[in-house]
Structure formats: C-alpha cells, structure tokens
Design a protein that fits this description.
3-stranded mixed beta sheet, two-stranded antiparallel sheet, 7% strand, binds zinc ion
Length: 286
C-alpha cells in the first residue's frame, strides 16, 4: 500500500518535472514546480503570518518618516513594475520595515509582498537613489518569477512535501507551499537570476526617477557593510562575476529614462497585512 502511494507520488513527480520548465523574461529556463498563482497565495499567507507575529512583538517600524521614505521609493518603483508587467496591477503590493539592526537584508515575495530591515538602512546607509536600486532589484526577482523558482527548489528538496503539494490543492498542499515560501526568501538566487534582477532593477529605478549610477555604488557599500557581520543580502544575492562593471556599463543606457522630464507616477501603498487578518490588539498593524 505504502509502495503504491510512493509509486504514484514518484509518477506525479516525474510528470510534474516534465512539465515544470518555464522561461524567464530573458529566455532562461526555470524549474517550476509551483504555479505563480500558488506561489502568490502561499506567500500571502506566509507574509501575513510573519508580519502579524513581528507586529505583536513591536518589531515593525512605525516611524512615519522612515515609512514615508520607503513607501515613496517603493511606490514609484511599483508604478513602473506595473507598466512593465501590467498583470501585476492585481497584486497586493505591500512593504514593511522590520526593526532588526543586525539584519542587512530586503526581499520581495511572489505577488509583490516586500520587507526591508533596519540593518540595511543603518549599516549600508543608502541614498534614496541607492535604496531604489535595492528595492528595484527585489521587485525584479518577483516580476521575473524567481520567487516561485526558489519555492520550487525548496519544495524539491523536500520530496514528501512536494508530493503532497503537487497532488492536490488541499490544506496540506498549501501548508507545504507556505513552508516553501518561507524558505525561499532564505535561499540564494542563482547568479543568472541575479543578472536578470540587476538588469530589470536598474531600468525600473531609472524610469521611477532614480539615478542609475547608484546601482554600482550600492553594491560597493553593500560589500563594505557585509565585512563585519553576516551579510544576509549578499548571501541570498550572490554576485555575478562582474556585477559592478556590468551595472556601470548599463547606467549610460538608462540615463534617458532617468532624465526624462515630468513627475513620476507613484502607487499608493497600504500597510499590510489587512486589519481583518491580524490578531486583535496588534498595535503596529493599522
Ligand atoms: Zn538578487
């Protein structure tokens, strides 16, 4: 009986692997064991739960000055992301600033749910132009479906969870996907994903009105900040060999977007998670 189940699971796995290749925006083959839609719903559940836990511990930044800066930069980038990939208009874009001075990190889950840690803001001390490169890079990973790709890797590393996850849309399957969503943001991106996110991110930022020359200086600062402690951002975003040189060479091509006249559209962010999904008495979640 058990062997039969195993055989079926294996059959499903083979079937899924056979149909699990997708193509990224730059034409690279991606392993896709979860659909982007599943990645988005699982990421939403994971995000809401994580943020509500952090909120109840007072670990979400509520300082309006910090939030306004992050929301303005991120909001302008999101507007450009939607222009680049119009179906993402339906995403529930959101960003939280997590109070963790030791964590030099930022991420964007499938479906546009983001976080940035105070450690990155304090230790890297980015200018607005540089912060836009960080968030533009993160958004690009989500636009290019890298987050679902990393969830696929996380699921493939747990065959049991994988078999459950692909076999049905059951609660167990969703729980497995949710676990993979949590794990995915801790796994390193591939270097080819990094190159894609660098390329898309610098363009998003330039179109949003942020200086493309800041991409190269950001990564210099990031390396310096990573010198002393654990550089989380650098471990999840490994450098393609010639990252800074490639970005510096891209910058002149992006100047026309940066120098284009006129105000830049800005997507208005609401603080997530929504109040009805947060437990009562969570002060930081409005
Ligand atoms: Zn990256």
């Amino acid at each position: 009986m058990k062997a039969a189940v195993k055989r079926i699971s294996l059959g499903l796995l083979v079937l899924t692997l056979a149909s699990a290749c997708a193509t990224s925006p730059t034409g690279r083959k991606q392993l896709m064991l979860v659909s982007e839609q599943t990645a988005i719903s699982a990421s939403k559940q994971q995000y809401v739960q994580t943020m509500s836990d952090l909120g109840s511990k007072g670990k979400l930044v509520t300082d309006p000055k910090v939030l306004k800066r992050v929301d303005t930069i991120t909001g302008r980038l999101i507007s450009q992301a939607i222009l680049m990939r119009p179906d993402t208009k339906s995403w529930e874009w959101s960003v939280q600033v997590i109070d963790d001075p030791k964590m030099v990190n930022a991420w964007c889950m499938a479906g546009g749910r983001m976080a940035i840690y105070t450690g990155l803001i304090q230790k890297v001390d980015p200018t607005d132009d540089e912060l836009a490169q960080v968030m533009g890079h993160e958004i690009s990973h989500a636009l290019a479906n890298h987050t679902a790709e990393r969830m696929s890797v996380a699921m493939a590393s747990q065959l049991g969870a994988l078999a459950v996850g692909i076999a049905s849309d059951s609660a167990a399957g969703m729980a497995a996907a949710q676990g993979a969503a949590a794990l995915a943001i801790t796994l390193p991106n591939s270097r080819s994903s990094e190159t894609e996110a660098d390329r898309i991110g610098i363009e998003l930022a330039a179109k949003a009105g942020y200086d493309p020359r800041a991409a190269a200086t950001l990564w210099q600062k990031m390396e310096k900040a990573g010198g002393g402690g654990p550089p989380q951002f650098l471990s999840t975003h490994p450098a393609p060999g010639n990252r800074q040189a490639t970005l510096a060479a891209l910058a002149p091509q992006m100047m026309k977007y940066y120098e284009a006249p006129g105000p830049r559209p800005m997507y208005t962010l609401a603080r997530a998670p929504a109040p009805q999904t947060a437990p009562k008495g969570t002060p930081a979640l409005k």
